[in-house]
Structure prediction request, 552 residues.
Amino acid sequence: MTEHEHRPWWHETTIYQVYPRSFADSDGDGIGDLPGITARLDHLVDLGVGTIWVSPFFSSPQADFGYDVSDYCDVAPEYGTLADAEALIAGAHERGLRVMFDLVLNHSSDQHPWFLESRTSRDNPKADWYVWRDGRGPGGRKPPNNWRAAIEVKTGWQWGEERQQWFLASFLPCQPDLNWRNPDVKAAMFDAVRFWLDRGVDGFRLDMFGSIMKDPEFRDNPLRPTMSRVTPPRLYPHEFTENTADNIELARDLRAVCDEYEPERVLLGEVFGPAEVLQAYTGGPGGDGLHLAFLFEFLVFRYDAGWFHDVIARFEHAFPAPAQPTYVVENHDRSRSIDRLGGDEEKARVLATVLLTVRGVPTIYMGQELAMANTYRPLRDALDPIARSLAWIPEPLSKRLPERLNRDEVRSPMQWDGTLNAGFCPPEATPWLAVNADHRTRNVADQDGRPWSMLEWYRHLLRLRRDHPALHAGDLHLRSGLGAGLLAYDRRHGDDHVTVAANLGAAATWVEVTDDQRLLAASAEDVHLADGRLYLPPDRAAVVGSAPPNTG
Ligand code: GLC
Ligand code: MG
Prediction:
């Protein structure tokens, strides 16, 4: 509770995800790049986030736009050079920002030299670097077992003609799974991790971390009777392919690599599973595994006070202090939140209030701070390989399957200004993905300094979060028994007490506050405070509290 209390930096940080291909193009080839990011770092400083997470920019044939790596220790030429990556780290550090890169450990590209060698024969030096198996049936032409991929293909196994064997590809067929049970693979991959740690990166987001260690006996995943041909891949059983005990052990091994370094480097896992599993990855409070695990429920939030109350309660229960829950409403794989809200900016302001005032580590996806929307693109025109594989689904149906989104739609270029190409690339260049037509009215330049803009709302909330120990270090107490539609919680740290209230219901409502609390933030002008009550019209949120101790 004292000023000298040691809190690891990652307990108090906020993360901003940059999808490098779409953030800022510095050389006019229509593709975002590392120098582009470095040149725009002040946007992050002005926004007030603490950490930038950069999606993969490593050497890659870009079949999955960088999540298919062909050299873990180099930069794809369209994104820049190693020196540019170092300049990005240095530029961020000069500004007091931390940097996280994105590690794709489960699989490489099928163009990685390791795989090109591995696939040639059963006895080359890299033969055992990927997960190869003999098939079943005559000529071994049936896949070794029933393991499925995370996308809609028939099997997770791909046929390797030269070896007359199958290799596992748990995501796309062009992303063969590395064989982490081979000590040489583990050593090579940990060396790649150290390569970036040596260059000063502050941590990593871990792609598909839960899938790395599969069952060593290759047992079939038990099928459930309710499964059918249209069961989405996430619902396939994965007892033997995800979150195995060995995989949780791997979290500790990777943590040990990070712990070789000072200051503290941080691991944020993309892992899916119930709370107990996620806890196992982090190793519990003060744990020895991953520092943080993404909690993805908010990606599919229901705009409903009871829903938010219950999910926050569950996260609080599963990740009690000093553990930190994480909160995320958008990323490069899922719909923009404004689209989930029917385009309603008042609701988006309520959502931002909750995201940035709960206890834990929030993540903002680039452009979310402008209320950037999905840029519609039919499946048949998709560049996203997953969407392309679904192009057979007829249009009206695909539109009704919101989770089967074309990921291109959330990867359109960042909207910096209202000019042609939105300031993402020069007007004469062709952006790799079309800019959203709404960039003329929805962009950084326009929202900068404009009262009540979404950007200013994000900035204001993030400033409050930094200024108030209650918000960046305090505990969280959910109020219950409130009127329908109302969500409220108190955050406290020492003498600092902040109350957050959000009205997600259809009728105006109010919540009790203490005498010394004044309005610190209101999502609209019609919110007011009188006689110990905070009055909220529908779709409004507000933060009340005393002046922060350090600013007087
Ligand atoms: C993760 C990434 C996604 C990528 C996949 C395969 O889910 O978020 O973008 O396609 O892993 O690496
Ligand atoms: Mg470029």
Notes: Residues 183-198 form the longest helix (16 residues). The CA atoms of residues 273 and 486 lie 29 Å apart.
